[in-house]
Amino acid sequence: MTDEELRTVVIATLKTIAPEVEEGDLRPDRPLRNQVDLDSMDWLNFLIGLHEKLKVEIPEADYAKLVTLGDVVDYLVRKLAK
Amino acid sequence: MIEFKLPSLGADMDEGKLLEWKVSPGDTVKKGQVVAVVDTAKAAVDVESWSEGTVFELLVAPGVTIPVGTVMATLLEAGESPLAPCAGRGAGADGPKPTLPLPGPLPSPLPPAGEGVSTGRRRISPAARKHAEVLGVDIESVAGTGPEGAVTLADVEQAAASAKVSTIDTKAGINPARTASALDKQAEMREAIAAAMGRSKREIPHYYLSEPVPMRRATEWLAKANEGRPITSRLLMAVLQLKAVALGLKQFPEMNGFFRDNAFRPAAAAHIGVAISLRLGGLIAPAIHDVGGKPLEQLMLDLTDLVKRARSGSLRSSEMSDPTITVTNLGEQGVAAVYGVIYPPQVALVGFGRIVEQPWAENGALTVMPVVTASLAADHRVSDGHRGALFLAALRDLLQQPESL
Questions:
Q1: Given Cys at both, which of B135, B236, B348, B397 links B160, Cβ 3.0 to 4.6 Å?
Q2: pTM for this prediction
Q3: Do A47 and B231 touch (CB under 8 A)?
C-alpha cells in the first residue's frame, strides 16, 4: 500500500467518526484531535477502525506518537513495512 | 385493557412525532420490547412497552405529532376478551373511535392506523395507505382523484414519482430540503435544551463544589490494564469515573433520584446519564443503567454502544427517561473544570475536567501529579454543601483504589 493509499484509508476511517470532515481543511502538521474535535471515545473508535481495516496493532503506549495526520500515516507506513 | 401512552422522554420533551410502529394488532408484546419509534426534539427514540399483552389497536398513525401522555395503542391483558374494553371506554364508547387529543397547530391527524376509510377528513384505501408508507409519501400532500376525493393507489404512485423527480433536480447541489431540515432539527434541539435548562435554573437552587483529585494511581492502573488488552476491549478513564460516581452515590442517596411534586425520591440504583455532545451541535444525556452493579468491561461496552446510538439517533425510551444523575466530562474539550446545570427532575450533576499534570505537595514533598478537578452541582432543596463535600471526598477516595472499581 502506498503512502497516498494509506492516507486515503485514514481519512475514510476518520469520516466514519466525524462525517463533517473535509479532507482539504485538514492540516497534516497540526494536532488531529484539535482540528477534528475528537474525544477519547472518538479517538479510540478511530484507532479501532484503522486496526480493523489494516490489521495493525496499535498499543496504547503508542498513542502519544500519533498527534498529527502526518504522524498517523507515518506510523502506519512503518508498522505495515515490518 | 392496557393503555400504552407516549412516555415522557426527559424534561425537555413534551411531544413527539410517531415515526413508525414496530408492532401490529394481534402481536404479543413483552415487557421492555420496542413497540414504536418516536421522534423528539433531540433524537428518534425506540419506545418500549412496560406492560405485557397483545396489541388490540394502534390509535396513532405514523407522521402524527402527539403530546406526552397520549394513549397511542391499547393492549389486551392475558385472557382479556377484545370485546370487553369497548364498554369501559367512557363517554361515546359505542360511537366511532375517539379522536386523538391533538392541540391546534399540529399537522392534521391521519385516521388511526389499521382503519380504512374514516374520519371524513381524508379518504384513502388501506392499500394506498400501505403503499404510501412503503414509498415514504406523505398522504396529506397527495391529491386524491378517486370518489369523493379519495386517495387511490395510482395517486400515491404519481406522488412518489414526482417526489423522485424533485430529488434528482436538487442532486447536483446540496439538497435544500435536507439542509433546512437539519437546521430545523438543530433549532428544535436548542429550544428543548433552553426549556429544560431554563426550568432548572429557575426552580433548582444549585450549589457548586469542586475537589482536585490526584489521578496517578488511576492512570497507572488503567495503562497497565490496557497493556494486555486488544484495542477492541480497552477501557477509557471515563468508565472508571462513572463507576466511582455510582459507588460513591451508595453512601449519598440524596444526590441520586428525582425531585417531583415538592418531594425527593431517592433511586435504588444509579442510572447515570452520560452527557454526549452531538457532532452537529447540541447534547443528549441518556442513561447507562445500574452503573454500580456492572464490571468496568461491561460499562465500557455499554458506553461505546450508547455513544454510537446517541449519535446515530437510536436511543431507547428507558435510557431517555430514567437517568437518576448526570455525569459530564468536558475535560475532553480541554477545560480544567466544569460546573454543570442539573437536568430536572434530577438533583445533582458531577463534572470532570481534563487530567492535567501539576505540582502537588504530599507528605512534605513536592511532586508532579496528574490531577482532575471533580465538581458537583447539587440541589439545595435536597442536600447541603456539607454532604456534597463528603460525597466529593468519597469520590476522590474511590478513584485512589482503581482496582476495587
A1: B135
A2: 0.75
A3: yes
